[in-house]
Protein 1
Amino acid sequence: MTVKENHSLESLVKHLDSLLSTLPTNYDLSKFSETKLKAIRIKLANYSSVLLKISRNLDKIKHPQVIFDPSDPRVVGKLIGLTLIEQPRISMTAVTPFYGSGIYAIYYKGNFKAYRPISETNNPIYVGKADPQVLDAKTPQEQGDKLYGRFAKDHAKSIMSASNIDIADFDCRYLVVKSAWQKTAEDYLIDIFKPIWNNEMGICYGFGKHGDSHLTRGNTRSPWDTLHPGRLWATSEGNKPNPKSPAEISAEIAEHFKKYPPVDISTLAISFST
């Protein structure tokens, strides 16, 4: 390390010492919006990451680039997610009843214009999970038929109700998972593929929504039901029209695919960089 670098490091530490000594320990959070607080937390996390990297680089004994920790939920989630991707892809109409809870992915292979970027690819249009019937279920039978019921019955029914898409144009993959691990796998798959029907994308959400009675509450029609009309409960008089038109939703989907083009699943591998 050169004299100039030594001086730079010492100046950095002095500057941080001075800055931290002036910072209050409590803040009036009522003065910030949730969006602003989230942005600040992200920036602070980024700063922390940079300082940690600098600290590690100052250690003469280097840190390993890869650490495999089987107790880390993120590691388990990735392993389960990658195992799902290796399962055979079958038609949604060919699934027969089975025991188990776990995760699933739904794929589109039709000609609906908005979905052409992922049609016939291995990018799911939706991924989800089904929790076990009994929280601490030890066997697939104890888990019940929750996984089958979730995507092969509930989701298939929603697709068949829509007037402009065909259940014959949908495939799926599914994996029965030991109870308590399905959520971490779902999070991994959503993060990798950014499926357009998942609520987390905030664009064409509402597919996984269960029917609501217009006698109990009035809801705004979801973007999914706006783009794919047909579910009777979603068009009842208690449901208000979505402020966005099908054309506007389709335009947002197009922008989404520009930002997140289909993932080549052959490039996905077990990697746990620190």
Note: DSSP finds eight helices and four strands in the chain.
Protein 2
Amino acid sequence: MTLEEHVPLARQTTFGLGGEARYYVAVTSVGDVHEALAFARERSLPLFVLGGGSNIVVADDGFPGLVLAMRITGVSATPAGEVDHVTAGAGVVWDDFVQHAIGAGYAGLECLSGVPGTVGGAVVANVGCYGAQVSDTFLRAEVLDTSDLARGVMTLEKSACNFAYHESVFDRTHGRYIVLSATFALPCNNAATPAYRDNRFDLSKLAARLGHAPSTLEIRAAVLDMREAKGALVMPGRKGFKCAGSFFHLVFVSPEHYRAIEARARELDAAKEERLRPWAWPQADGRTKVASGFLLEYTPFVKGYTRDGVGISPQHTLSIINAGEGSASAVAALARDMQAAVEREFGVVLEREVEYVGDIARS
């Protein structure tokens, strides 16, 4: 284990801002993780596990404890009937894993193409987009329980991970478990069954244009183009912004609240409400899923808004960007104002999807 001090974190995040880690260690083995945890425990240091830095904002003052950069890599596969059990180290770059899976003839991950970050981070957040989420194919994870390290490496099966929309036991327990590797059950027949639809991207239209059912590789290409169109693709040779993707979660409301939102939107601008349809989708549990970006369209915080070196992506209303001279404090202040504006207009509290690292309030 090689320990470093006062390591700048901005360059290790997709936002490209924030201060230093007081201590920093890149771990490449389970032994490294144990050493790092022992170091933090002996000094009563707070701990933060860093993956690809794609869903975080680091405070301008940095992080006062130990940043454990997860760099355990490796991919292996074991046949299991109609699927293979494919295991990846938590430090494997997620999109590299997706590319590997598609190249090996597997299906199930193509709609998650272009998602930044690592395999470990994708599992913790149960990353999802375009009709797929990590938990669809997830089988089990090898983890360390920081509350009981004497147990050594543990296996958590899918049923124990309590996956939900952009959530898992890993983020709900606030760092108790450190994911070391994850195993996925991937179909070997390369048969894709994506379900995503919106007014800008429809795989049935892709099939019509191609003249055949799209392959996983063709779906990947379409998803990458879609992510680039939103300015959310972090990839060499592609256009994107310094950001963390969608800053806020989608909203789930009761039928009554949905009708109130619809009425208020029409009252404010009926033509806009009609133009932005569909912006809500009924759910199996009776609630309605509402696009948070739609709600923001009725506030000052629309595409292209800027202030204090940060702003709203000109391509994606839900994406706060570092416009070049931004700071964590400016990002947090803008996020608070966006939340307040939506609550005033629609009685909806936008929940932050992005994690704050360090004391953002002091930044």
Note: The chain has nine helices and 20 strands.
Protein 3
Amino acid sequence: MRLKNIELWGSALAIFLITALYLLVTARSSVPAASSAFGHGIGIAGFVLMLMTETLYSLRKKYQFARWGKLQNWLSFHIFTGLVGPFMVLLHTSWKFQGLAGVLMLLTLIIVGSGFLGRYVYTAIPRSIEGNELGSDQIQELLDANLEQFKAWKRFHLGGTASDHYNLHFTPAGIVKNQKRFFKELIDQGIEREAVLSLKEILRSRKQLEKQIASLGKTRKLLAIWHAVHVPLALSMFLVAAVHILAALYFSTLLK
């Protein structure tokens, strides 16, 4: 079973370990300067992770030649690198935010915040097990399949000679509105608890699909707006980062 929000738990663990290493280095001397070996190392590693954030998931999503692995797993990796990379860059600054480095850090924090927002908008769009986006027709097919599953449950557990009470009221919409009372009635009528739990899962899936198809259009518009803002911000951040890196190389290496 896939751990829920595994990318957030993984990011938290990585950030904890990196912080422990940073505190150890700090305790042995002082706050590592951005120009120190540790400062350069953590900055380069963070920047590489940020580059991976902006490239690998996009390649997997857009291009046929990069169709390896599940899209959902690449999204998790995208979120992981998008959190850990900026944190490492933050430590690289040695807590000095003047000039270009300050602008870069501000853009990085904005991108991270935007990424969190995009994650929840993105995951609101229904997707297949592989992580591919589902259209309204595909969701309707899932709804139809769910209804057939519901009818099969009814035939198996109530039989073809169910009472008028069930014939009149045993519908997905009706049960969703009165779940607690209705499930109690089923158990009182002798339906096994495991069967009632399976019915609950069928109805939970149906309710989720109905919400998804109702909000699909609005969610897609929100994602389009987010994408139109997030991508230019990310490009601006990498442009500033490139200037920062070239300037650092020029002043620390070429002028010596």
Note: Residues 136-211 form one domain.
